[in-house]
Amino acid sequence: MATIAVLPGDGIGPEVTREAVKVLRATAEKFHLALTFEEAPVGGTAYEAIGTPLPDHTLAVCQRADAILFGAVGGPHWDTLPRNIRPEQGILALRKALDLYANLRPARLFPALVDASTLKREVIEGVDILVVRELTGGLYFGQPKGIQTGPEGERGVDTLVYTRPEIERIAKVAFDAANRRRKHLTSVDKANVLASSELWRRIVTEVGAGFPEVRLDHMYVDNASMQLLRHPTGFDVLVAENTFGDILSDEAAMLTGSIGLLPSASLGAGVGLYEPIHGSAPDIAGQDAANPIAAILSAAMLLEYSLGAALAAAAIESAVSRALDQGYRTPDIQQPGTRRVGTREMGDRITEAVLAGGEA
Ligand code: IPM
Ligand code: MG
User: Fold this and answer.
1) What is the DSSP letter of 125?
2) pLDDT tens track for 300-355
3) Is 0.70 surpassed by the pTM of this model?
4) Domain at 1-105+262-360, CATH from 3.40.718.10, 3.40.190.10, 3.40.50.300, 3.20.20.150
5) Which of 10, 189, 236, 246 is catalytic?
6) Active-site residue 246, yes or no?
7) Residue owning the nearest CA to atom 9 of ligand 1
C-alpha cells in the first residue's frame, strides 16, 4: 500500500490536483496498485486556516508519505505578507526540508499541439527537452537575504552561492538523465560574470569525465534563452542552477504550447514531490478553465519515479495524448476546429482514455 500526500494549495491548485487524483485512482485500479491519499493544507490556504504556509502537520504527512502530489501556491491576496509567511514559503520550505534538490521538468511536444504554440511548427516539431533544475540552493536560499535599512536608505540583498557538493550532486543527476536519453547535456551558467557559475562550469566538467558517452556543452544563460527559441530541437538535457532553471523552464514550457502542460518531479534522497510547473493562476481559479494536464502528467511522473510503476505512468501519458488527438482542449490550448472543455471534463476524458487503453 502506497500513501500519497496530496497538497492542493491555492488558486487553480485544488482544481487541477482533483483531476490528477481522479486519473491516479483510475490508473491504480487498472494496474492493481494500492494507493491511499492523505490531503493536507499548504500555501495561502494553510496560512488562512492555521497561520503558516507550511504547518507542522502538513510536513509530517509529507515525511511519512511514499510520494507527494502538489498543486500550486500563491495569490495577490497574500502578496503583501512578510516573506517568511507568504504562500510561496509553503513550497520553498518543503523543498528545503525534504532536500528535494533535483527538479526534473520534461518539455515534450504532443504532436496534436504542434499548432498550439506561439512558435512556428518547423521550429518546435520534435521538441523533447528535459530541464534539470537545481532546487535547494542559489539565490532562493543563500544567506544573507533580506531588506535592511542602512545609511543610504533601504537595501535588498540576495546571495547567489553554490558549494561543490551541491553542484556535484545535481550534475550527476543531469548526466545520468542524459545517459538514458540522447546523451547530450547542456550546462547553463553565466561563467563570464558570476563566480558561482565559474565554479559550476568547472565542477560540471569534472563530473562529466565520469560520463564519457555524454556530450557536454556549456552555454551562457542569455544565449540559452535565445537558443531555446531559435533552435529548441538542439537541446536534449539542460542543467541549470535554481533561478536560471526557474526562468528557462517556463520558456521551455511555451515551446510545447502552454505552461499548463509541463509536469515536474522534485527528487532527493527520500520522498519525491510532483507538481505542475505552473503557478496558482488566480485570474482563472474556480472557473473550471485551468488545464489539468501538467498536474496529471506530474501524477504519471510520481508513478514512475516514486512507485516504480513505469507502465502505469506510460498509460497516463498515452491517455493524455489520446485525449488531445480526439480534439479535447482547455482554453489555453484551444484552436479552431477543436472541442473546448473545462478542467473537469479534460480530467474525465483522460480518465476514460486510461481505462480504455491497452490491458495492464
Ligand atoms: C516554480 C515556481 C516557484 C519557484 C514559486 C511558486 C516559488 O515558480 O516552481 O517554478 O520559483 O520555484
Ligand atoms: Mg517557476
Assistant:
1) T
2) 999 999 999 999 999 999 999 999 999 999 999 999 999 999 999 999 999 999 99
3) yes
4) 3.40.718.10
5) 246
6) yes
7) 277
